[in-house]
Q: What sequence folds into this?
């Protein structure tokens, strides 16, 4: 059966705390922590972007997959912060990692679900036998406008997954998608920051699609929430995935391991994939994992994974997500953060 | 002037109605009211709406709603008086019937606030643009100044102000159409996010979509239809300076006291004759100030009255049994009509778990801006 043969993540070392952002805008950090359940977030360095994050995450995935990069027949990077409007992110990545030129490359975009979109297609190609291996990445250096609520959450990071049919560490048992035209969050060409329709992003957008996809996936698989060891949902803030999980019948314990958003922030296309990465770091053979992503606009992708015996052979071959999250952190003040995110623009 | 009755009511759920348009909700509320009244025609329509142009880009609501109700060519008029648009719509309908011009009139109110507009900016158009808004004030800021003044002059406490929200949520639990049907505690109000010192998030009424409609008619028609109806015994209106800073006092709303005086004179009633009231608690402090200005107690006693339970459902004079604007929601143009509906339900014994015992006379007070316009309607059980 097809599935993941290698996975890896990358998070920048830089962090900013909710307090530092709140102070600049006269907001109450306690209320934000309580309301959004966010404490700090990752910040990309000045020399980091979606491509460097993708390369770093894919390197870690290759360490676990232990395959010849030349055998990867498809590379898909899902992001809403591709550095170029016209020029694929994946071409730089394949040259950096020694993949290709016999490879199909594409940049994906579907707000925060572009990463799982890449995983969905990569798995399909491998499953159909079209390519031997396919690399799918969800990575972002998310944008949040100064003073906007998104500034507390929009962070940077990503995860990579190599799909194959042999030496699988986590089988993909079921997939599904749930999509409708729901304009809750968007960024037009030439705009620096996305705009969003406030509370409309909640019930009619996030919850409708995440819960809708989740229910259909349970129905399709004939499984129940209690069958799963872990569940991961897209994490725009700390509160939403917990609420969505509860609505579907999952417990706090099932969500806990993949619920990394309070300390990582929302890595947009890299959000639920990185939650999955944190779960795979500690999963045991036989564990079932339930994952539903969400992308504004809007849609959700659902996956059911079953961890194999091989997981134990690869978990220690690359850095683990929890270590990236907890260690080696460099805290920034708001001024440094504004510089790193290039929020200070000269009017020349 | 003829006597006027309210013979039918209808309203939508109040809340974030993402899948419904302004036309959908007005038509839904109106059809419910028409069905409830059992009338076979309407002579004219009044549509209360504050800012449909800024909220959803649609003006000319009189004609729009008459069309979508399938009632054109019936005369249909939009009535605007900021957050008092609903109450004023009711008053225009009352005058239309009492003058003998119409027999059966639909008075509605509607606002579709959750559609992507800048709600704070749209609401701020009810203040003085040139002298207040231009300098940065918003409505939470204006009512915060009223709260600070009241706390300074009368030693009203933060806890007493917060108690208004706790009481109104307690009432709203039993209102199936309310936006927030959850109990909140004093601690939750006092620890909610600061909006404009001293007012916090849970001191503020929410942003709401909703519509409400009532059918008014002459007493002759009401008696012929032999429905459960209530009598309108006073309908008054007054105005004040548009800007708060121009007033001698921040703690007395002259439009409220003036409209109340007129209403008491029209009816010969005293404040103590009123069994219950729906008042405009756009912010918690507003309920305290209005309670005093309606003459239900001396100035400065509004805070202690809430704290002591005088205004609770089982108190001496229950205030905002519907949940008020705080819990039921505040679709600005619909609020005044929703107040009339609560009065009708109470006076016909249909208020369920929030029923006030032996309710015979109810008062509805609806105001615009920081009290620059106010309408008071008093209804009596028949």
A:
């Amino acid at each position: 059966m097809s599935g993941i043969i290698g996975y890896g993540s990358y998070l920048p070392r830089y962090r900013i705390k909710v307090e530092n952002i709140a102070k600049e805008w006269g907001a109450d950090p306690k209320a934000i922590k309580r309301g959004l359940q966010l404490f700090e977030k990752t910040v990309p360095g000045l020399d980091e972007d979606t491509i460097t994050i993708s390369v770093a995450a894919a390197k870690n995935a290759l360490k676990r997959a232990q395959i010849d990069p030349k055998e990867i027949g498809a590379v898909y990077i899902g992001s809403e912060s591709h550095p170029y409007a016209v020029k694929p992110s994946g071409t730089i990545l394949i040259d950096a990692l020694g993949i290709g030129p016999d490879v199909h490359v594409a940049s994906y975009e579907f707000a925060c679900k572009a990463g799982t979109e890449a995983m969905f297609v990569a798995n399909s190609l491998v499953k159909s036998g079209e390519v031997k291996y396919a690399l799918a990445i969800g990575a972002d250096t998310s944008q949040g406008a100064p003073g906007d609520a998104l500034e507390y959450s929009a962070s940077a990071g990503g995860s990579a997954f190599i799909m194959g049919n042999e030496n699988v560490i986590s089988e993909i048992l079921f997939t599904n998608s749930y999509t409708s035209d729901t304009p809750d969050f968007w960024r037009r060409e030439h705009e620096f920051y996305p705009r969003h329709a406030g509370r409309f992003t909640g019930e009619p957008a996030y919850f409708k699609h995440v819960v809708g996809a989740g229910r259909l996936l349970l129905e399709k698989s004939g499984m129940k929430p209690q069958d799963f060891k872990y569940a991961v949902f897209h994490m725009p803030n700390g509160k939403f995935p917990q609420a969505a999980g509860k609505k579907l019948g999952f417990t706090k314990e099932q969500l806990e391991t993949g619920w990394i958003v309070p300390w990582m922030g929302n890595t947009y296309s890299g959000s639920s994939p990185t939650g999955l990465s944190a779960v795979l770091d500690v999963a045991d053979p036989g564990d079932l994992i339930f994952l539903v992503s969400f992308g504004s606009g809007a849609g959700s992708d659902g996956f059911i994974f079953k961890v194999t015996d091989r997981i134990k052979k690869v978990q220690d071959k690359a850095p683990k997500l929890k270590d990236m999250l907890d260690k080696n952190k460099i805290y920034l003040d708001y001024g440094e953060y504004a510089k790193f995110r290039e929020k200070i623009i000269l009017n020349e | 002037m003829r006597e006027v009755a309210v013979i039918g009511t209808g309203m939508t759920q109040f809340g974030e109605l993402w899948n419904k348009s302004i036309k959908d909700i007005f038509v839904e509320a109106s059809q419910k009211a028409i069905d409830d009244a059992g009338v076979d025609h309407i002579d004219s329509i009044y549509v209360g709406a504050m800012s449909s142009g800024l909220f959803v880009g649609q003006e000319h609501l009189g004609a729009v709603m008459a069309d979508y109700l399938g009632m054109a060519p019936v005369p249909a008029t939009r009535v605007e008086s900021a957050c008092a648009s609903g109450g004023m719509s009711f008053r225009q309908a009352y005058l239309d019937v009492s003058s003998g011009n119409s027999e059966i009139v639909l008075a509605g109110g509607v606002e579709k606030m959750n559609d992507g507009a800048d709600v704070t900016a749209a609401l701020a158009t009810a203040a003085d643009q040139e002298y207040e808004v231009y300098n940065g004030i918003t409505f939470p800021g204006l009512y915060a100044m009223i709260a600070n003044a009241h706390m300074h002059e009368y030693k009203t406490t933060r806890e007493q102000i917060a108690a208004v929200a706790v009481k109104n949520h307690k009432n709203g639990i039993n209102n199936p159409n309310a936006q927030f049907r959850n109990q909140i505690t004093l601690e939750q109000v006092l620890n909610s996010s600061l909006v404009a010192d001293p007012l916090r998030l849970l001191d503020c009424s929410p942003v709401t979509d909703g519509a409400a409609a009532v059918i008014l008619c002459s007493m002759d028609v009401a008696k012929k239809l032999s429905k459960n109806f209530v009598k309108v015994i006073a309908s008054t209106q007054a105005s004040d300076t548009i800007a708060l800073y121009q007033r001698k006092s921040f703690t007395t709303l002259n439009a409220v006291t003036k409209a109340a005086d007129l209403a008491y004179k029209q009816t010969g009633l005293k404040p103590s004759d009123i069994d219950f009231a729906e008042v405009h608690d756009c912010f918690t402090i507003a309920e305290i100030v209005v309670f005093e200005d309606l003459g239900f107690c001396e100035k400065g006693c509004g805070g202690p009255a809430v704290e002591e339970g005088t205004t609770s459902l089982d108190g001496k004079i229950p205030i905002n049994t519907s949940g008020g604007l705080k819990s039921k929601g505040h679709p600005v143009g619909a609020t005044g009509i929703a107040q009339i509906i609560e009065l009708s339900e109470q006076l016909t014994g249909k208020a369920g778990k929030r029923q006030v015992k032996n309710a015979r006379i109810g008062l509805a007070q609806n105001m615009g801006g920081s009290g620059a316009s106010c309408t008071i309607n008093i209804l009596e059980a028949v």
Notes: Residues 232 and 291 of chain A are 5 Å apart (CA to CA). The domain at 3-168+318-340 of chain A is CATH 3.40.47.10 (Peroxisomal Thiolase; Chain A, domain 1). Chain A touches chain B at residues 28, 31, 35, 197, 199-200, 203-204 (CB under 8 Å).
